[in-house]
Amino acid sequence: MDCRLGCGACCIAPSITSAIPGMPNGKPAGVRCIQLDNDNLCMIFGHSDRPDVCADFSASIDVCGTTNQQALWLITDLESSTC
Protein backbone atom coordinates (compact mmCIF):
# COMPACT_ATOMS: atom_id res chain seq x y z
CA MET A 1 0.00 0.00 0.00
CA ASP A 2 1.24 3.50 -0.79
CA CYS A 3 0.70 6.39 1.57
CA ARG A 4 -2.24 8.63 0.72
CA LEU A 5 -0.77 12.04 -0.07
CA GLY A 6 -2.11 14.63 2.32
CA CYS A 7 -3.18 12.13 4.99
CA GLY A 8 -0.64 13.00 7.69
CA ALA A 9 -2.14 10.66 10.30
CA CYS A 10 1.25 9.05 10.96
CA CYS A 11 2.63 12.54 11.68
CA ILE A 12 -0.15 13.48 14.09
CA ALA A 13 -1.44 10.44 16.00
CA PRO A 14 1.69 8.71 17.34
CA SER A 15 4.21 9.97 19.83
CA ILE A 16 7.72 10.33 18.43
CA THR A 17 10.51 10.24 21.01
CA SER A 18 13.41 11.09 18.72
CA ALA A 19 14.34 14.64 17.80
CA ILE A 20 12.58 16.25 14.85
CA PRO A 21 13.90 19.50 13.36
CA GLY A 22 11.97 22.19 15.24
CA MET A 23 10.88 19.67 17.90
CA PRO A 24 14.12 18.65 19.67
CA ASN A 25 12.30 16.49 22.23
CA GLY A 26 10.10 14.74 19.69
CA LYS A 27 6.34 15.10 19.94
CA PRO A 28 3.53 13.71 22.08
CA ALA A 29 0.73 11.63 20.64
CA GLY A 30 -2.01 13.69 19.01
CA VAL A 31 0.24 16.68 18.35
CA ARG A 32 0.77 17.71 14.76
CA CYS A 33 4.41 17.47 13.68
CA ILE A 34 5.89 20.89 12.99
CA GLN A 35 7.27 19.50 9.71
CA LEU A 36 3.81 18.96 8.18
CA ASP A 37 2.90 21.67 5.70
CA ASN A 38 -0.62 22.98 5.09
CA ASP A 39 -1.27 20.08 2.69
CA ASN A 40 -0.18 17.49 5.31
CA LEU A 41 3.02 16.73 3.41
CA CYS A 42 6.31 16.20 5.24
CA MET A 43 8.70 19.06 4.58
CA ILE A 44 11.73 16.91 5.49
CA PHE A 45 10.76 13.81 3.53
CA GLY A 46 13.96 12.25 2.18
CA HIS A 47 16.22 14.48 4.30
CA SER A 48 18.90 12.98 6.51
CA ASP A 49 17.54 14.73 9.62
CA ARG A 50 14.14 13.03 9.29
CA PRO A 51 13.74 10.64 12.27
CA ASP A 52 14.37 6.97 11.51
CA VAL A 53 10.96 6.06 12.92
CA CYS A 54 9.36 8.24 10.24
CA ALA A 55 11.55 6.94 7.43
CA ASP A 56 10.88 3.34 8.49
CA PHE A 57 7.08 3.68 8.55
CA SER A 58 5.27 1.67 5.89
CA ALA A 59 1.63 2.24 5.17
CA SER A 60 -0.60 -0.81 5.44
CA ILE A 61 -4.33 -1.31 5.32
CA ASP A 62 -4.49 -2.52 8.93
CA VAL A 63 -2.76 0.65 10.18
CA CYS A 64 -4.01 3.21 7.64
CA GLY A 65 -7.45 1.90 6.73
CA THR A 66 -9.12 3.21 3.63
CA THR A 67 -9.55 6.91 4.49
CA ASN A 68 -7.50 9.62 6.18
CA GLN A 69 -10.00 9.76 9.04
CA GLN A 70 -9.79 6.00 9.52
CA ALA A 71 -5.98 6.19 9.54
CA LEU A 72 -6.06 8.83 12.26
CA TRP A 73 -8.45 6.71 14.33
CA LEU A 74 -6.50 3.47 13.83
CA ILE A 75 -3.10 4.97 14.62
CA THR A 76 -4.51 6.79 17.65
CA ASP A 77 -5.98 3.50 18.86
CA LEU A 78 -2.65 1.69 18.34
CA GLU A 79 -0.81 4.46 20.19
CA SER A 80 -3.17 4.34 23.16
CA SER A 81 -2.97 0.56 23.40
CA THR A 82 0.85 0.59 23.50
CA CYS A 83 1.28 3.22 26.23
Automatic annotation (TrEMBL):
This is YkgJ family cysteine cluster protein. It comes from Shewanella polaris.
